[in-house]
Amino acid sequence: ILSSLRIQTQAMQQDSNSRPASGYPYPYDPPQQSNANGYQNHYYAPHHNPRAILIRRLFMASMVLLLILGLILVLYFGLVSPQLPYAYVNSLSLSNFNVSNNHLTGNWDLQVRFQNPNSKMSLYYNAVVCTLYYNRDSLSETRLQPFDQGKKDETPINATLSVSRTYVDARLADSIGKERAADGSVEFDLRMTSSVTFRYGVYRRRRYVTVYCYDVAVGVPANSSSGKMVGSAKRCKSF
C-alpha cells in the first residue's frame, strides 16, 4: 500500500511540473514583435510621426491666431463703427428741355452734397459716377471728380448731365407729357456710385457705395423749357 501511494504522489508531481503557471496565458514565451528589418523586439512601443505632430501644432497655432485677429477686428469695429456717407440733392435745374417726335433734349445742372457722418474716419471718393433716370430708363451719365472728405465734413459737388435729341420710346415720351400736363413738374431719379476708402490711422478699407435719389421733382410746365427742383434739399439713400 505504501509503495502504491508513493508511486501516485510521484506521478502527480511530474504532471504539475509539466503544466505552465496559471498566472501566465501562454504555455511558452510571449510572442515577439518584428520590425521592418525582421529583427524581433521583446518590448514593442509605437513610434509617433514627427511630421503629423508638427502639422497638428501648426494647425492649432493658426486657429489661435485667427481667433485673436477676429477678436481684434470685432473690438476695432465696435469702437470705430464706420458709417456710410450721407448724400443730399441741394438743387437740380433743367434747361432747354424738349420732348417731341420721340426725341428728348435737355440740360440738368445738379448740386449734390456729401456728408461724412464718421467722427473718427476720413473718406476718399474715387471717380463718382452719376446717372440720371426717368422711370428706370437711363437718360444721361457723367463722372464727378474724386475728392477727399475729413471727419464730419460736408462737400458740395456740381455736375451737368445733358441729352441732345436722344431717341426715347413712345411710352416714355407720353409719360413725361402726362406729368407736365397734370402737375406741371417731372420727377427724375439719380444714382451715384463710387469706390470709397475709409481711413483711420494706418487702417484702410475700400468698399463700393451706391446712393439713390428717388423722385426728385423739377417744375417744368408744358409751355416752358426750363425749371427748378421743387422743394428743399432732398436726402438720398446710401447702400
TrEMBL record:
Topology of this chain in the membrane: Single-pass membrane protein
Q: Which domain of life is it from?
A: Eukaryota
Q: Where are the transmembrane segments?
A: 58-79
Task: Tell me one Pfam family matched here.
Answer: LEA_2
Report any one BP term from Gene Ontology: defense response to other organism
Localized where?
Membrane
The answer to keyword Membrane applying to this record is yes
Please state what the protein is called: Late embryogenesis abundant protein LEA-2 subgroup domain-containing protein
Q: Which organism is it from?
A: Brassica campestris
